[in-house]
Amino acid sequence: MTATLEAHQAVGRKQPARRWSVGPWLLLLPSLLLIAVFYIIPFIGFAHWSFGPEKSATDQPTFFTTYYYEQLVTSKLYRTAFLNTLKLGLAVTIGCLVLGYIVVLFLHHSQTRHTDLYLAFFFIPMQLSAVVRAFGWKVLLTEPNGLVNRGLSALGLGTIPFVNTFWGVAISLIHVNLLFMILALLVSFRKIDRSLESAASSLGARSWSVFFHVTLPLSLPGLITGTVVVFILSIFELVTATIMGGGRVPLVPTVVFDLILGTVNWAQGTALALTTVVVSLLLVGGYYLGMRRLLYEERLGTRKATPRGDA
Amino acid sequence: MATLRFLVALIYIFVLAPAVVVIGSAFTTTTYITFPPEGFTLDWFTQLFQLENFRGGFLLSVRIAALTTLIDLILGLLAAYALVRFRYRGQNGVRMALLVPALTPSLLIGFALLNFSIRSGIPSSFALLMGHVLITLPLAIVIITQSLERLDHDLENAALSLGAHELETFRFVVFPAIRPGLTAAGTFAFLLSFDQLPISLILKDVAQGTFPVELFNYIRYEINPVLSAVSTLFIVINLVLTVIGLLAVRRAGSA
């Protein structure tokens, strides 16, 4: 059944339905081989090492141990790094959401024809490459001579040590990831029918009420995508964490880096990295499913409400 | 709306500030970084060209990026052809699988490759190159796939039925049509590879790191106007490559 359907689609696109040919697989072979040899096999080895008892990568592990996973729970450094990283992901996500929402709401209401021009500026942080971006923030936030701290003290607010702190890392990550949040939100906002909002206001809803009951629910799909993407992108960023954290903020990427390249403790480094991957995927997955459910119920709610409104 | 406009203006300052400060401070006459710059000098730019490790890093980065681009274009063209011109079981699975490396944190790819290179004896420089190919290939495949999809398949069939060999058809029909797409794919692959840091840092050669790695090793510990000049040069390189890439994308779209 599906086979004939696919064949029909293929004919429709004027493409040959050569279903059993080896041709495509021969063409795909180099790329698939690359992924198999330099992606899948290395990651199996990487995961394997987290159970190995030896510290050095050149020694063969002799038996299976969960010692390094137990260490993650008992050691204060690993616990702190892990919690800090989740906190960082959360802070960056919320920061990007607030700033991104303001920008997208502005574009939505301004009804400008030059949306692309407004958006172009948000691609600039992407253009800077991670090192240069972190360098720029280090220059801006240095205490006491950075532009930000000079401004703060001119306003009589004193200076704030941003460099080598959690918030220094968070600010520079918000800066670069803002673009992804804006792009995700825009996808939803472009689908919003403006007449719904004007209908709500003409029926007497206040502007904040229109926002919370019409605009915000309709933008939820983009909000969900944006928050997931930004969270994942923030928690494994090594360059920003190293330059802005200056080794004083324990975060998973920097701790893993030090464990493997500093003390050559492969097993502990891989255990920490893999645990963080698995836990963050579970958290993000749970959040995503929860939000989709909320969205679904929201839609059911509006569907129920409509006939009553009509009557 | 007025409040919104004001907040957006602040966000624009936030977005642009780092670039402005980096570029501005590269021209200061003081030996320490200050913004706005005091006076105007190009000394820091002439100094940076005398720094051995930046010159070496630049050449190494260009070499790696050029090799990465070449491999990406060959593998990407073959894979894109298989994705566009054929229908077969598992096609969507393959399409997804090819994108996965670009979605993996490059920190993890770097360590997995380092581990692999130590255990298998493969030179770390080769593992580094393969790491660059892994994370840049998905974008190349996406761009080439799009330009192949725009090409009318009947043109190829016409050429073949008029007696052209398959290679001739590719050379005279397919290749000219997708050339802007290939240029775009190649430029962005080069750009991504040139910018790549975590993999290059983890698989760094003892003596010489890539351009971003050398810059990273300085910026970790200090800030000074020479580093501003290096960063400004980096911004200019990125900007030029992006413009070339975007122009190619536009040509591919209008073709």
Describe the structure.
- The complex is a heterodimer of chains A (311) and B (255).
- Chain A has 311 residues and is mainly α.
- Chain A is built from 14 helices and no strands.
- In chain A, helix 4 (76-110) crosses helix 11 (207-235), helix 10 (194-202) runs antiparallel to helix 11 and helix 13 (252-262) packs antiparallel against helix 14 (266-310).
- By secondary structure, chain B is mostly helical.
- Chain B has 11 helices and no strands.
- Chain B has helices at residues 2-25, 43-48, 52-84, 91-103, 106-120, 124-150, 153-161, 166-195, 198-202, 211-219, 225-254.
- The mean pLDDT of chain B is 89.
- At the A-B interface, helix 2, helix 4, helix 6, helix 7 and helix 9 of A face helix 1, helix 3, helix 4, helix 5 and helix 6 of B.
Short synopsis of the structure:
Chain A has 311 residues and is an all-alpha fold.
